[in-house]
Amino acid sequence: MNAINNKLIFLFLFFSITFVFANDKKPEPVTWEQNVKGLLYDDGVKIRDGSDLMVLDTPYRALDAAIVPISINFLKDQLPNDYIKHLTIVIDENPSPIVGKFEFSPKVGNASFSTRVRIDKYTYVRAIAENNKGEKYMVSNFVKAAGGCSAPSLADMDSVMARLGKMKMKFLKTSEATNKLNKAKFLISHPNFSGLQFNQLTRSEIPAHFINFVRVEQDGDLIFEASPDISLSEDPSFTFNYLNTGGSLTVKVNDSEGQSFSKEFSF
Questions:
Q1: Pairing of strands 123-131, 249-255
Q2: Mind giving me the DSSP string for 192-255?
Q3: Which end of the chain is more exposed for a tag (fewer CB within 10 A), N or C?
Q4: Are 218 and 248 spatial neighbours (Cβ–Cβ below 8 Å)?
Q5: Which CATH number goes with the domain that contains 63?
């Protein structure tokens, strides 16, 4: 009898584990292959495996689909003749799948970058890096999250609009020595309305109103420039590196309503 019970327990565990893994199988990237890739590149453009160049860090199952942290960590530093020039972040299944395009210069030192995004449904998240030679590399992760693009704001409308455009800069790693790698996190208060949300009081649709341009400089030299879209989260944040030359960091931001914000930050 004990042998039979042990066998039944074994079979139960075997089929339970098999069921879990079968249901956890990642889907084929159909949306990327059939739709999204063509939005970015012409047929025949070669995209290499980027796993030796960078690591994409995302949660497998997001705690909050409206604020999903993602980081792209590059495994080598920027060099004057060999550097990452462009980074594109893509969320295949979002209504606007191209989260943003980012431009870097050698001054960034290391192109590792973090931000927060909205995710509408279970999807692949991609980071595509292009170096100064025009070579393209991609890494991707599958993320389980849903409803982030239509999720309501974290605060009431009046509070959101009252702090519109307020900026902060957190200096995470600093050195006053010239050309030492520093690290900072920029945050701006902005609802980044996606156009898919509803006012919780009136139940009317909230028009899209989002940040579509960010430029960060030091001493007149570009650190990074971004052209984001509605898939960035509310109150966008960007964590980045830069080779310090001693001056203030200057930030310029535009949004889709034509509003502009700028500020200088010194550590």
A1: unpaired
A2: -B-SS-B-TTT-PBPPPB-EEEEEEEETTEEEEEEEE-TTBPSS-EEEEEEE--SS-EEEEEEE
A3: N
A4: yes
A5: 2.60.40.10
Name the domain count of the chain: 1
CA-based nearest residue to 239, from 125, 134, 131, 102: 102
Decide if 223 contacts 103 (C-beta within 8 A): no
Q: Which of 149, 50, 59 is nearest to 99 (CA)?
A: 149
Q: Tell me the pTM.
A: 0.89
In which domain, by residue range, is 60 found?
27-265
The pLDDT of residue 24: 66
CA atoms within 13 A of residue 147's CA, in its CB half-sphere: 8
Tell me the per-residue pLDDT of 91-129, one tens digit each, with 9 for 90 and over.
999 999 999 999 999 999 999 999 999 999 999 999 999
Question: How far, CA to CA in Å, does 90 sit from each of 153, 182, 191, 248?
Answer: 23, 27, 21, 31
Mean confidence (pLDDT) of the chain: 91
